[in-house]
């Protein structure tokens, strides 16, 4: 890989396996925390959450101990994973100042320095995937991006990631933020376009499922030929008459979004 790319960490394991040398406390019970709990279940000894009922349910599901009071978290864990919403990380870190051990959060957009003063070492354990609590994810395919304040912490985070995936990379806070932006384009914005399409389809008595072959073919092309060569459609062809016709059929935000994206595609392919 050239400069500015993500460095693949060597010596990772393939597939899911328990590593009894890593004892984990998980702080959080949301979408990301739930999937991490399932895949790291043999290694998780305690779960804490701002919602004690959620912590109890998740802990029961994986055979761990639920902790209601954050001050009752064990001091004997090897790794403390903070998997809460981005806006909750810093307030939570303020409660944890002076703790011992290795602490890491799972956010793609919050810097590792948010955990300064927490633990003997700190870092980031960022699984890049879209997570919904009740939707299964093949965690063996999920890349994990790691940042750590010490080599020991990096090794512990790497060992933890290797329990379920072989796709492990170094990424400092700046690179991780750029990666997160790219993921928003690739995932969140793409899904919103499907939502827009679904709304239009409902007006015709259909839904997004009728586009399943189209979406699958588009993704296959993007992954095989690359998204640049896979781009099609009226804007790619420079067919302004079709674009104008479509715009005349749309109103409000739909028309604005259609025009903005069409203009962007026209500019990109006519540099």
TrEMBL record:
Residue numbers spanned by region Disordered: 222-242
InterPro entries the record matches: 6-PGluconate_DH-like_C_sf, DUF2520, NAD(P)-bd_dom_sf, P5C_Rdtase_cat_N, TM1727-like_C_sf
Domain called Pyrroline-5-carboxylate reductase catalytic N-terminal: residue spans: 23-96
Sequence ranges assigned to domain DUF2520 in this UniProt record: 142-264
PANTHER family associated with the record: CONSERVED HYPOTHETICAL ALANINE AND LEUCINE RICH PROTEIN
Name of the featured protein: DUF2520 domain-containing protein
Source species: Muribaculum intestinale
